[in-house]
Structure formats: structure tokens, C-alpha cells
Amino acid sequence: MKLSQKDVLGMKEMTHDDINLVLDTAESFKEISTRPIKKVPTLRGKTLINFFVEASTRTRTSFEIAGKRLSADTINISATTSSLIKGETLIDTAKTLESMRPDIIVLRHSAAGSPHLLAKLLSASIINAGDGAHEHPTQALLDMLTMKERKGRLEGLKVAIVGDISHSRVARSNIYGLIKMGASVALAGPATMMPRYVERLGVSIHINMEEAIADADVIMMLRIQMERQDESLFPSLREYSHCYGLNGKRIELASKDVIIMHPGPINRGVEIAPEVAYGPYSVILDQVSNGVAVRMALLYLLAGGGEA
Amino acid sequence: MFEKSTVMDAEGINRSIARIATEILERNGGIDNLVIIGIRAGGVYLAHRLREAIKRMEGAEVPVGILDITLYRDDIGLSGTGKPRLGTTRIPFSLDKMVVVLFDDVIFTGRTTRAAMDALIDFGRPKRIELAVLIDRGHRELPICPNYVGKSLPSALWERVTVYLNEEDGKDEVVIEKA
Question: Top-level CATH class of B3-74+85-178?
Fold first, then answer.
């Protein structure tokens, strides 16, 4: 079996079978990162360009490590070191990169839909590493791998996603993916941070956090995105933390073996208490290691691996 | 039209494994520093059976590892080959200074063995790598020769050799089919 498309643009575009293939393949890639020599020759001679027009530590590092562990040649370009600051358009920069014949381009950009634009123009495979507040499919895949690993399944899981839903590409990708895989999703956040018509995606909406996390198998906390807020969406951090912060007391409402997730970077003491972020229910660091495995699986599958 | 014939039955497979176990012990003078690595999928079951056969003779167990060679294949990105879904490699012990017996069900072109040797060397520096196969069907494309062979089976390129094993298929049998 192969992926049904040449690109990974969003969870909206991925099929149920694609998601299963990526998660199964990623499980087998985890072992490589535990070897003394963490490298296999699989993508020798393939070129991977990490084109990050927006800031990132974990996603860019994760893609670079994934590429290197598969022996691909990885090149990183960031906004400040690219010709974009000289006024070159995204399309022109991309066409220039394409002429050097990369096999895969990983794009992070603040404009929603930019990876889709490049996917139409270029023959290289495009992976969306986050486009504005739209989608972040590789994050959703690593989240789903972590849930599947801990819970043994995705179907029937009760997942609560709490925080700034409308600015969150992580939330959107997880909603598309989890609903496709048969999980149920409850959203919680202040009304100012809840996108309109989001219930059409098949999720339940709660202004009260306690309702959303009651009996949840998974609680996913979102980061308050200071950099995306041009207007004040809540009165104070203290009030936000009081209403929507995850602390030890609130965890008691969830299922006994709940897992706590966060895509990072965390705002300690705002959306999540430090003792929760590093407490017994937390799988936040598993998410990071699974990120490498999921990205290795995607690079491998896009480069032609998998069942024929 | 398919023509099928059985070239090895359950008894034959058991006898071959017992003989290979004896040969391994004879050549290596016992089980010191010996490990068995089964190549996915068929080789894994055979590796476990080989361990049992050696245990019956020596009264001690030899470590068994599992190797998936998919990531070391030389045809990634080429179409037309039936590539199985990637499986997990599990070698939870060091291979440094060990005698590694690789076990595969069928040796054909030798490309799987090449991939397996490259993979093993990424895990350490074995003292020696030996190759055991249940069936050698010929047609090598690389200069590779097994140390232990269950049965040599001259075959035509258009024929298909399939090893069925109880653990996976519910029966022990080696079948040759003419397409």
C-alpha cells in the first residue's frame, strides 16, 4: 500500500487508510532511534528541503533528524536567510528551489493554503509543517500515534481539546484526523476563541472546561498563542488560567487512566500547571519522540516505500 | 494455469532444521557467543525453531533477534516489486564479537542477504556472519553462498517457491508452482 497522494497537505485530505498506513509504519521506525547507530540507508541520495518561513524549533529539528536518520540530504532554509526578505515571492523562491531538484519540500508558512499552492506548482512532494491557523498534519499524526500507543486504539476514544481553538492548526488537524478514525472530540475554550460553525465537523462544544474533560481518555491542552493575538480575547492570563488551566484537581474529572498532551511549547502555569506537564499522566515528551518516527514514516512513504 | 507440487513436508522441514542445528554446533564447537537472527517474515519462525532444536541438544538457549531488511533494500522507489509493510527490527543484544547465524526461508537472488548483512553491521561488529536457509533455489545475482542449506531446489525463473509455516499459515510445507 502507498499513500494516496504525492503530498501531505492536511488531515482533511488524508484518507482513513493513509492514516493507518502512516501510524503502522511509524511504529516500526521508532526502533531505529533506540539503536547505537541511529541511521539506515533508505533515503540515500534523496534531497529534503526544510523551508521554514515561520519560527519553529521542534518541528524543524524533528524533520531534520527524521531525514538524517534515513540518510537523506537535508537542507534548512528560514525566512531570514532566504531571498524572501529581498522581496522574492513564495512562488518564485519555490520555483528556484525546484530547479535544484529536491525530492521533498517541507513548508511552514504563516499563510493558510501556501503548501497547497506549492503542491500544484511543483513536482516535488510537499509536506505541510503548519500553514497559519489552518492545518498541521504531522502534529496530528504524532498525537494520534501517541494516543494509539497508550490506549491501543483510536476508535471510541473520548478526546478533549482545550484552549484557543480558533487560532490552532493543531486542533483543526486533530479534529479532522480523530473524527475520521472514529474518536469523539469535545472542544472547550472561551467563546472568543471558538471558531464559528466548528460543530459542523462533528465535535461537541463547551464553554465550561469541566464538561469537556469529564470522563475523557485524552486531554489535549493548547498553547495560548500570544503572537497571534492582535486583540485581547480574554481579560487576563490569571483569569484564563483559572477557567481553562489544567491542574491536578481538574484531572480527577477525567478517566482514571487519562493521558495529558500538549503540542508545545508550553506556557508554564497558564494553560497547564508545571506539575501536570511533567506529572504521571503526561505524555508530552512521548509526543516529541513520536514526532521523529511519524516524520520518518512520511518521508519514507512519499519517497516510494510501502507496499506496491 | 497453475501446476503445484510439494517439495518438502512437515517432517522434511523438521529434519532439515535438526540437521542445520547439528551443523552449526559442529562448526562452532558449541553455543558460546552464538546468536540467531531471523529475517522477516519466514526466517523469524525458523530462527525460533532452530533455537528449540539447539536447546534439545545443548540444554541451553541461544538469543534470537528479528531483522526487517526493508529499509536496506536496493529498490525503494522502483515500481513493480511487491514490497511488504515495514515491520519492526528487534535485536535487544550486542552483536560485537558474536557469531551471527542469519536465517531466511528461501535464498534466491541474494539481494535480501546483502541487505541483511548491511543492516547487521549497523548494529555492531560481529566476529562472523553465517547464513542458514531452508531452501536454496539458485539464480543468484550477487556473490553470496549459504553456509547451511535445508534443501537445494533447482528452479526456473518463472516458477514460484513458497514456504508455508505452521505459525503463520497453519501448515508446514514447501511448494513450487509453475505460473
Answer: alpha beta
